[in-house]
């Protein structure tokens, strides 16, 4: 009986480890990635399909007026920017690369249907 209790306690502890690691204090940790994609103006791209060099001026104006930029990953998914820190806007990190290809490292997670990326490094992709 005691042996069985010890085994089931160990199994429980093992099973709850990944959860504990993922949800530290309610924070969801993503998985580390290195990916390439194109910086898009989320609103124009999703509503009108506008993207590419001819849309750079519009995307820049949109971003400067507060519209979010995002990354259209080479996997076809749109990644919106996230930061676990409060009051830590990320749009400005994409602004120099509007409508260009970028290579980013960071962590991604899917939450409520949204793909979110916390960027560690970003550079123009060739
Ligand atoms: Cu636009």
Concise description?
This protein is an alpha+beta fold and about 130 residues long. Helices cover about 35% and strands about 35% of the residues.
Give the H and E element order: HEEEHHEEHEE
| Radius of gyration based on Cα positions | 19 Å
Gross CATH architecture: Beta Barrel
Unreliable spans: 20-25
Secondary structural class? alpha+beta
Bound molecules: copper (II) ion
CATH topology name, in short, is OB fold (Dihydrolipoamide Acetyltransferase, E2P)
The whole-number mean of residue pLDDT values reads 87
Strand content: 35-45%
Biggest sheet descriptor: 5 strands, mixed, barrel
Describe the global form: elongated
Q: What CATH first level would be assigned?
A: Mainly Beta
Number of strands: 7
Structure write-up:
With 126 residues, the chain is an alpha+beta fold. The chain has a single domain (26-124), classed as OB fold (Dihydrolipoamide Acetyltransferase, E2P) (Beta Barrel). The chain has helices spanning 2-22, 42-48, 56-64, 91-94, and strands at 23-24, 27-28, 31-41, 69-73, 78-81, 101-111, 114-124. A five-stranded mixed barrel has the order 3-4-5-7-6. Strands 1-2 form a two-stranded antiparallel sheet. Strand 6 (101-111) and strand 7 (114-124) form a beta hairpin. It is elongated and about 70 Å long. Bound molecules: copper (II) ion. The site of copper (II) ion has 7 residues, from helix 3. Keywords: Signal. Residues 1-20 form the signal peptide.
């Amino acid at each position: 009986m005691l042996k069985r209790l010890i085994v089931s306690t160990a199994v429980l502890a093992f099973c709850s480890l990944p959860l504990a690691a993922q949800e530290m204090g309610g924070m969801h940790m993503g998985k580390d990635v290195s990916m390439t994609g194109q910086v898009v103006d989320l609103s124009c791209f999703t509503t009108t399909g506008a993207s590419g060099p001819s849309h750079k001026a519009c995307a820049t104006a949109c971003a400067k007026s507060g519209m979010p930029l995002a990354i259209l990953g080479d996997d076809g998914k749109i990644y919106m920017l996230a930061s676990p820190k409060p009051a830590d806007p990320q749009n400005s990190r994409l602004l120099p690369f509007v409508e260009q290809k970028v290579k980013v490292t960071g962590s991604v997670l899917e939450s409520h249907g949204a793909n979110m990326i916390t960027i560690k490094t970003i550079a123009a992709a060739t």
